[in-house]
Amino acid sequence: INHIVHNGGLYKRPFNEAFEETPMLVAVLTYVGYGVLTLFGYLRDFMRQWKIEKCQNATEREEQKDFVPLYQDFENFYNRNLYMRIRDSWNRPICSVPGAKVDMMERVSHDYNWTFTYTGRVIKDIINMGSYNYLGFAQKTGACQEAASKVLSQYGAGVCSTRQEMGNLDKHEELEKLVARFLGVESAMAYGMGFATNSMNIPALVGKGCLILSDELNHASLVLGARLSGATIRIFKHNNMQSLEKLLKDAIVHGQPRTRRPWKKILILVEGIYSMEGSIVRLPEVIALKKKYKSYLYLDEAHSIGALGPSGRGVVDYFGLNPEDVDVMMGTFTKSFGAAGGYIGGKKELIDYLRTYSHSAAYATSMSPPVVEQIITSVKCIMGEDGTTIGEARVQQLAENTRYFRRRLKEMGFIIYGNEDSPVVPLMLYMPAKIGAFGREMLKRNIGVVVVGFPATPIIESRARFCLSAAHTKEMLDTALKEINEVGDLLQLKYSRRRLVPLLDRPFDETTYEETED
Amino acid sequence: QEKEELIEEWQPEPLVPPVPKDHPALNYNIVSGPPTHIITVNGKECINFASFNFLGLLNNEKVKSAAQASLKKYGVGTCGPRGFYGTFDVHLELEERLAKFMRTEEAIIYSYGFATIASAIPAYSKRGDIVFVDEAACFAIQKGLQASRSNIKLFKHNDMADLERLLKEQETEDQKNPRKARVTRRFIVVEGLYMNTGDICPLPELIKLKYKYKVRIFLEESLSFGVLGPHGRGITEHFGINIDDIDLISANMENSLASIGGFCCGRSFIIDHQRLSGQGYCFSASLPPLLAAAAIEALNIMEDNPDIFQTLRAKCERIHKALQGISGLKVVGESFSPALHLQLKESSGSRENDVKLLKRVVDYCMNSGIALTQARYLEKEEKCLPPPSIRVVITVEQTEQELDKAASLLKEAAQSVLN
């Protein structure tokens, strides 16, 4: 399905998003692959039960053998038989700054991934296409690191108290004012963990008697926050505005399910960039719907803040919209700012309410001062307030890298999901065997990639996900592309049936591309 | 038609209700500079009796230089969750060190103290399982239980008879439906030192109940890690219990270790499960390496100086004695607990008024150079809301003079405000 939308003037530039359908043969072969693995899984479990094969798992204590078993046998079936085989693609330990190139500790397994040993060698200079380092602020030198170092020696590493008690430092106040200015909202509040920002503040905003409309592919933190709030949750199809409109209409017209009383509030939960699909939310349409049906919008910009928009201010900037239209702007500092934590921005009443009633303000320790300083310096850099144009240059570089990389991959014939402008690039693998093979082959060629399978994605749609960074130079991208091409040929990953005609020269410019169909 | 009218007419509530300007939790104290022993609150220099810096490691030079070295090597953030290039060698080292220190097989680190127990409980306890939890459990435990969707049974604070009664009731239920009982997991969740009351939990009796009724124990040691026991290993060392008897120990590193984050430790059989099903572990970025390095250095200091625990305990006893007999305020907490509460002996009847009274006591002390704070709760969200209180925290860095000064100042403040 290919959408090129200029929907009635709501969009100022073309919105190009593509999710090519799975080829039928590939789908069938994938199911066959999983079937074979499941059969072998049952066989191995049978052999382990009858002690023909050694059981490698950790087991329960002797004294507690007659307790109710802690795990269901079936729960771990997937873990034991499928995940274990390719476990070396995940949890790879690194020992340098997670920048464009990274050093990894070498590990080997002599018993098919049940245990790992470190050989002690370090694989140096792996091109890092897996870390969320969109603007390249993961650095061990430079203005940000020096400022953080100074604050560390002055303030120490921890805080040992909550925001409402004795943990509110002047640094936190400074950070919040700066973030509010950066986003263009009245006020902001910062928290120590991005996941916790969602799971602790959504329950503070909505409760029983409210309705939450959440996108199909929302992140675990949004789902957990919605569940903990006690509100009714309804799910609309991914990025599908007709589905959302239908749900909104039904909700207002019919009211709450049994009592037919009107809903107290309706909250729409969407993300800026969906990290598994690489798609960007259709924000102009969502805002139009929100205004028409008088509901509230909660926008989670975990991946899009800093990464989208001509000045790096996220998806609102990318579409050229007014930040005041979004009721709750949430985001994290982990990805584009090279630090840790999350924030919520919005009107002053909202933030005052959160300062009083947020779970995190009352019970969770506040952010660590050097981390706060890193965020302050990096935000100032992006805004250009530190006197240099480094921030602006990085935002531009990321946009160029994104377009170049995506274009080249499509020319090679891979199936790439998602929006043209999203720096998250999922490349479809489909078959379970290729998941492990792709990760290992790329590592052999000194490129670190992230592969994801079930349960983070639907069972046949496993993928490799590249995260582009402003720190990647054109040479690094070209090397990576060359290797991906090789591995793609080796593993037969070039499934796409609609190739782009390659441009003879590849200038970095702002023009949109024309699709030519086969 | 009709539908259009309904849509026109419907008015939602405002997103958030307005908060009155003088709400006690709205106006934060602003601390300028580091929250160490001498703290500058709202422009005034005070002695810090409010930060949980029990072992005084917040300002320790060795800890800071270890963090600096890590900052120079790794930068600040990790830019990824543990599964995707977010696992650093410092994380692995910290996990090994914690496991060795606590003498368990394995440990797992979280990047946020609150998320530690709130992610650990739902990883094991699902819908249909039964959890027996103390009434005074902290908010993080309550959120973990809510996320797990299990059946919660509260027992009175530290009342083993009440717990046994509930366990017996459950046993009779089980006999009615043995097939269901065979797959229903049971857990007891307790804290070592309770944050809300400063008491210690009677662990030896709990162990007996564990084996009698076949329930697993999850122990939350945020306050007791680095405080109880001759080497600071927590309540199991304090009572001399075999650590393998406790199924899971969870603690946060934000109190004694003066860092950020939390950890769980126990046998590999139990801990390894969280690496795939702990929500706060899989779906969240890992702990910044400089904080992990600070925690490792803090652990080193704890291992090298086991006498600080004795010093801390002596100071706690001293101030506990000194605070007895203040008119109008009673001390709540064990004599060796470094986090005490001072509650009003007689409540005025409304919580708001009590809070206002205590605020005046706290302000009096702050104006005279002792920084205190009220214990903050979310009143509508807590299951069993504790009464309003002033939190008094004892650290190793406070001298005996300062302890005495604090005690006498509190006496004065209580006299002037409450009489």
UniProtKB/TrEMBL annotation, chain A:
Its cofactor is pyridoxal 5'-phosphate. One of its GO terms (cellular component) is endoplasmic reticulum membrane. One of its GO terms (biological process) is ceramide biosynthetic process. It is an enzyme of class 2 (transferase). Coiled coil: none annotated. Residues 124-484 form the Aminotransferase class I/classII large domain. PANTHER family: CLASS II AMINOTRANSFERASE/8-AMINO-7-OXONONANOATE SYNTHASE, SERINE PALMITOYLTRANSFERASE 2. It comes from Melospiza melodia. Gene3D superfamilies: Aspartate Aminotransferase, domain 1 (3.90.1150.10), Type I PLP-dependent aspartate aminotransferase-like (Major domain) (3.40.640.10). It is found in: Endoplasmic reticulum membrane. Belongs to the class-II pyridoxal-phosphate-dependent aminotransferase family. This is serine C-palmitoyltransferase.
Automatic annotation (TrEMBL), chain B:
Pathway: Lipid metabolism; sphingolipid metabolism; Sphingolipid metabolism. Belongs to the class-II pyridoxal-phosphate-dependent aminotransferase family. The lineage of its organism: Eukaryota, Metazoa, Chordata, Craniata, Vertebrata. InterPro entries: Aminotransferase_I/II_large, AON_synthase_class-II, PyrdxlP-dep_Trfase, PyrdxlP-dep_Trfase_major, PyrdxlP-dep_Trfase_small. The keyword Acetylation does not apply. The gene is Sptlc1. One of its GO terms (molecular function) is serine C-palmitoyltransferase activity. It comes from Agelaius phoeniceus (Red-winged blackbird). It catalyses: octadecanoyl-CoA + L-serine + H(+) = 3-oxoeicosasphinganine + CO2 + CoA; tetradecanoyl-CoA + L-serine + H(+) = 3-oxohexadecasphinganine + CO2 + CoA; L-serine + hexadecanoyl-CoA + H(+) = 3-oxosphinganine + CO2 + CoA; dodecanoyl-CoA + L-serine + H(+) = 3-oxotetradecasphinganine + CO2 + CoA. PANTHER family: CLASS II AMINOTRANSFERASE/8-AMINO-7-OXONONANOATE SYNTHASE, SERINE PALMITOYLTRANSFERASE 1. Pfam families: Aminotran_1_2 (PF00155). GO terms for biological process: ceramide biosynthetic process; sphingosine biosynthetic process. The keyword Transferase applies. Residues 45-408 form the Aminotransferase class I/classII large domain. Its cofactor is pyridoxal 5'-phosphate. This is Serine palmitoyltransferase 1. Keywords: Acyltransferase, Lipid metabolism, Pyridoxal phosphate, Sphingolipid metabolism, Transferase. GO terms for cellular component: endoplasmic reticulum; membrane. Component of the serine palmitoyltransferase multisubunit enzyme (SPT) that catalyzes the initial and rate-limiting step in sphingolipid biosynthesis by condensing L-serine and activated acyl-CoA (most commonly palmitoyl-CoA) to form long-chain bases. The SPT complex is also composed of SPTLC2 or SPTLC3 and SPTSSA or SPTSSB. Within this complex, the heterodimer with SPTLC2 or SPTLC3 forms the catalytic core. The composition of the serine palmitoyltransferase (SPT) complex determines the substrate preference.
